[in-house]
Amino acid sequence: MSSRTVIRGGLVITASDEIHADVLIEDARIAALAAPGSQSWSADRTIDATGRYVIPGGVDAHTHMELPFGGTHASDTFETGTRAAAWGGTTTIVDFAVQSVGHTLREGLDAWHAKAEGNCAVDYAFHMIVSDVNEETLKEMDLLIEEGVTSFKQFMAYPGVFYSDDGQILRAMQRAAGNGGLIMMHAENGIAIDVLVEQALARGETDPRHHGEVRKALLEAEATHRAIRLAQVAGAPLYVVHVSAAEAVAELARARDEGLNVFGETCPQYLFLSTDNLAEPGFEGAKYVCSTPLRPREHQARLWRGLRTNDLQVVSTDHCPFCFTGQKELGRGDFSKIPNGLPGVENRMDLLHQAVVDGHISRRRWIEIACAAPARMFGLYPKKGTITPGADADIVIYDPHAEQVMSAATHHMNVDYSAYEGKRVTGRVETVLSRGEPVIDQREYTGRAGHGVFTPRSTCQYLN
Ligand SMILES: NC(=O)NCCC(=O)O
Ligand SMILES: [Zn+2]
Ligand SMILES: [Zn+2]
């Protein structure tokens, strides 16, 4: 039986427009937009969005649910993490399936399908982490693209875990140049960083703040430059993940000025947090250990400028939560043993709305960097990331005037601290539809594990 929902009276904001409009949803899709009150559509359900924004559901293109990492597992499962995503107005996540060294891409992807299937509250897709580049792996990349897994992350960091050397990176990039895949790069010089880690520990520098000191901005910039030039040699597009250093943004800006298909993502933690957090007293700084690391506050202005000028295209979370108790604590007395990663999948849309309130970005740019650009970048547009007839009815009714205080006491992520504890923000998610079904209804969770489905992606839609 078909169902019809009408959203009346809201301000519909997409990456390109802001219009007062009523929205008609038929089953899982958006059917029409019309001037307010101009249509007497019959409906099973009417949502009054007067005084509210009507925005596309967020697309978080960088999450790590249940990731085995640093001797433990990220604490959000696909069930808890996608439920938290829904609470925060995100209706699609793209998570990273992992190829372990000595195993195939297929084995890694199958394992991630098994973790996610039947458990997600909102839709999900996968990137593939390629840890072991060889002839078989390169062939498998082609097959994964046919299955809708069209992007591949490589690491210039973490020697002995996910690390690829320049030759392996070049080979994967060459394959991507031929098959339409997008290489995503963790750009930090991990070999040099490991030397600095060893030297710091030998000097007795074991506190969390030293994590930020050894993972130098120059080593992010150097790796970013190297990745860009390797991609240029291969003739492949490149997406650099979790950019935090001003010097790395400068490398991306230069490459884009040269006309290269080079893209950059940053994350809320680099825009709102800094090395001040890493230096919090006692072992508190461990809560903020992630890689690339938080930088001194001065870097933030360059990141905001990059987001305004499109030298950075996407803000994703790199959501990779580890509880303070029992997980971050693994690194007491040795910062290099603190599991790397921060929680944030629930906070991204609100923090970026706060950036609108603070004057860093416009409302349309908010929707561009959080919804439309990630959807385009990863082949999900216009199914996801916008409000237009034919698109999935992934829609958030957002109250731009509500005040909230972020806290572990009220968040829904399965982690015992908030990286933004006590932060006051203006704006809050009120109702969330995922393919037409309410998953959050007037601040009540109405979703269910298994509603979210695997969403195959086409190749990058963002190329020059
Ligand atoms: N970013 C981080 O610290 N943890 C997740 C793994 C990665 O993205 O490198
Ligand atoms: Zn990374
Ligand atoms: Zn990550």
Characterization of this structure:
- The mean pLDDT is 98.
- The chain has helices at residues 78-87, 105-116, 135-146, 166-179, 190-202, 209-214, 217-234, 246-257, 268-272, 275-278, 299-309, 348-357, 363-377; strands at residues 4-13, 18-26, 29-34, 45-48, 53-56, 58-63, 68-69, 72-73, 90-98, 123-129, 151-155, 182-186, 238-240, 262-266, 314-315, 395-405, 424-434, 437-441, 444-445.
- The N and C termini lie far apart (43 Å).
- It has a domain at 57-377: Metal-dependent hydrolases (TIM Barrel, Alpha-Beta Barrel), CATH 3.20.20.
- With 464 residues, the chain is of the alpha/beta class.
- Helix content is 31%, strand content 23%.
- Strand 17 (424-434) and strand 18 form a beta hairpin.
- Strands 1, 2, 3, 4, 5, 16, 17, 18 and 19 form a 9-stranded mixed beta sheet that branches. Strands 6-9-10-11-12-13-14-15 form an 8-stranded parallel beta sheet. Strands 7-8 form a two-stranded antiparallel sheet.
- The chain is built from 13 helices and 19 strands.
- The site of one zinc ion has 3 residues, from loops.
- It is an enzyme of class 3 (hydrolase).
- Keywords: Hydrolase, Metal-binding.
- Belongs to the metallo-dependent hydrolases superfamily. Hydantoinase/dihydropyrimidinase family.
Topology:
Elements (H helix, E strand, L loop, with lengths): L3 E10 L4 E9 L2 E6 L10 E4 L4 E4 L1 E6 L4 E2 L2 E2 L4 H10 L2 E9 L6 H12 L6 E7 L5 H12 L4 E5 L10 H14 L2 E5 L3 H13 L6 H6 L2 H18 L3 E3 L5 H12 L4 E5 L1 H5 L2 H4 L20 H11 L4 E2 L32 H10 L5 H15 L17 E11 L18 E11 L2 E5 L2 E2 L19
Parallel strand pairs: 1-4, 1-5, 6-9, 9-10, 10-11, 11-12, 12-13, 13-14, 14-15
Antiparallel strand pairs: 1-2, 2-3, 5-16, 7-8, 16-17, 17-18, 18-19
The chain binds N-(aminocarbonyl)-beta-alanine and zinc ion (2 copies).
The site of one zinc ion has 4 residues, from loops.
